[in-house]
């Protein structure tokens, strides 16, 4: 029975909806990888050193201080390579293998953990690119699946990283104190950072989508075609504040195609659920760790996960 007070939290009720669903979509965010030890963007995990993670994810930040932005992404590449996929990633992989083209995962995550959990690639849409793609800031060159750690010797994640950052902060403070615009406050001299082997001019940059940039055109077209194809029965909104557009807009698109919404998040209705905050009594809310909840709520289709967990 659906509650008259808001979204249901009843797993058995969800299992019935799941079993009768023919087409399902998942929209994932950083919370899916939280149990793997990777930080989120907003809330408690949203700071890197004394920088807001979101303030470093812009082309303007890269233009201002490419070394600082690269160190942030070098750190994230390093952490992602050390991390392991968790049972939440594996549960989505199994759902994808069972439902084939009737299930699609849209992920905002750039950490490569869904890929490493063997999520079928055709059914996994990377809305925000990948930490392991390297693009040129000037031309169209893109290199995929570069797992070098560090990507460049100057970007090694060790104790010298802190020295470089401290030096940059000191010079920034000095510039502010003396109001001298000629003091170079950049963390690493851009001439020393890796440049594009094709155009020889542009700096290399991480192949992620920054604020103000367009999402990958072909990915958006593929997702659009999947949505248009038929009715959608259910959207799983997993570990995301659903506040970053256009990704967050997929909740409404799924609703418009008939989908019930199931939110899986550490936060409940009192938290930030963005585009998924208007849950009705036809919807579901499972509050807690996605790594624990997904294997449980998807069990009728995927069975037990025990032997697949890492
Ligand atoms: N299980 C489930 N949810 C969790 C967990 C967990 N173990 N830990 C945290 N969460 C939830 C938080 O409550 C929050 O709602 O995950 C969400 C993380 O939200 P954000 O940090 O905003 O991450 P995300 O929604 O992925 O950000 C979207 O913003 O900066 C950009 O491009 C970046 O892809 C990113 C986008």
Strand content: 15-25%
**What is the count of structural domains?**
2
The arrangement of helices and strands along the chain is HEEEHHHEHEEEHEHEHEEHH
Instruction: Please tell me the overall pLDDT.
Output: 91
What is the count of β-strands?
A: 11
Bound molecules: adenosine-5-diphosphoribose
Biggest sheet character = 6 strands, parallel
| Number of continuous helical runs | 10
CATH C-level class of the largest domain: Alpha Beta
> What integer value in Å does the Rg equal?
21 Å
CATH topology of the largest domain: Rossmann fold
GO molecular function: histone deacetylase activity, NAD-dependent; metal ion binding; NAD+ binding; protein-malonyllysine demalonylase activity; protein-succinyllysine desuccinylase activity
Domain Deacetylase sirtuin-type: 4-305
Keywords: Metal-binding, NAD, Transferase, Zinc
Family: Belongs to the sirtuin family. Class I subfamily.
């Amino acid at each position: 029975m659906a509650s008259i007070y808001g979204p249901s939290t009843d797993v058995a009720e969800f299992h019935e909806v799941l079993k009768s669903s023919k087409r399902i979509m998942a929209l994932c965010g950083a919370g899916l990888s939280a149990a793997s030890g990777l930080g989120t963007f907003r809330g408690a995990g949203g700071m890197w050193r004394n920088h807001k993670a979101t303030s470093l994810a812009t082309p303007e930040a890269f233009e201002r201080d490419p070394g600082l932005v690269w160190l942030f992404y070098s750190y994230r590449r390093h952490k992602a390579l050390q991390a392991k996929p968790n049972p939440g990633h594996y549960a989505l992989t199994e759902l994808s293998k069972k439902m084939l083209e009737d299930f699609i995962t849209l992920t905002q995550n750039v950490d490569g953990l869904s890929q490493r959990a063997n999520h079928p690639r055709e059914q996994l849409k990377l809305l925000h690119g990948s930490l392991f793609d390297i693009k040129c800031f000037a031309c169209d060159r893109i290199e995929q699946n570069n797992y070098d750690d560090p990507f460049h010797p100057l970007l090694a994640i060790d104790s010298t990283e802190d020295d470089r950052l401290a030096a940059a902060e000191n010079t920034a403070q000095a510039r502010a104190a003396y109001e001298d615009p000629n003091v170079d406050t950049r963390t690493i001299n851009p001439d020393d950072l890796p440049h594009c082997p094709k155009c020889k001019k542009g700096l290399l940059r991480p192949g992620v989508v920054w604020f103000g940039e367009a999402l990958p055109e072909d990915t958006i077209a593929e997702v659009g075609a999947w949505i248009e194809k038929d009715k959608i029965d259910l959207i799983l909104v997993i570990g995301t504040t659903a506040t970053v557009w256009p990704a967050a807009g997929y909740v409404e698109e799924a609703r418009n195609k008939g989908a019930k919404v199931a939110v899986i998040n550490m936060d409940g209705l009192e938290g930030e659920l963005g585009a998924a905050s208007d849950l009705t009594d036809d919807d579901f809310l499972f509050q807690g760790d996605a790594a624990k909840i997904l294997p449980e709520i998807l069990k009728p289709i995927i069975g037990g996960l025990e032997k697949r967990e890492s």
